[in-house]
Amino acid sequence: MFTCTTNSPEETADLANKLGQKIREGTVLCLEGDLGAGKTLFVQSLAKTLGVEGEVTSPTFNLMNIYEGICPIYHFDLYRLETEEELDEIGFYEYTEEPEGIVVIEWPDKFPESMPEDYIKVSIERTSEKGRQLAFSCTGERNEEFLKELETFVNTGH
Ligand code: ADP
Ligand code: MG
Description:
Structural class: alpha/beta
Oligomer: single chain
Number of strands: 7
Bound molecules: adenosine-5'-diphosphate, magnesium ion
Strand content: 25-35%
Largest sheet: 7 strands, mixed
Strand order of the largest sheet: 1-7-6-2-5-4-3
Radius of gyration: 15 Å
Shape: globular
Helix content: 25-40%
Order of helices and strands: EHEHEEHHEEEH
């Protein structure tokens, strides 16, 4: 695990941009944090780096958005989901089991049991009006290596 602090939305967007430069197809990315932490802002910057040109908005009401960038990006927001069956109904497992593009999930902690085995997690905590602490961690060996690479890239720029 490694952590980063940011002092503005731009700095958080820059971190997401760095992740976007390194993230691989087939990755599931989970974003935890309270309302207003910056999860959607993070996804917006990530999507832009991945070549998405249209608007990226929080799928709180429609539960999932699909964007076309250099690969498909599936953006879930589980905030409003109430039961695990609903996850099944929206096809969540088909997208997350062997993802063909990149899957991004806001509020994964609502259904911890339903998350896939391997994912990268970013937990965002609000430390002040414009201050955020972002903790990057992962499950699975494959992502372990990736996370080390990302830490180096974030710290050194290569
Ligand atoms: P969430 O999806 O987690 O509910 P949003 O990304 O929609 O949160 O909103 C985050 C809000 O916090 C935005 O209005 C953003 O401008 C603001 N903000 C202030 N400082 C930061 C920061 N350091 N990083 C991210 N967002 C920040
Ligand atoms: Mg959001």
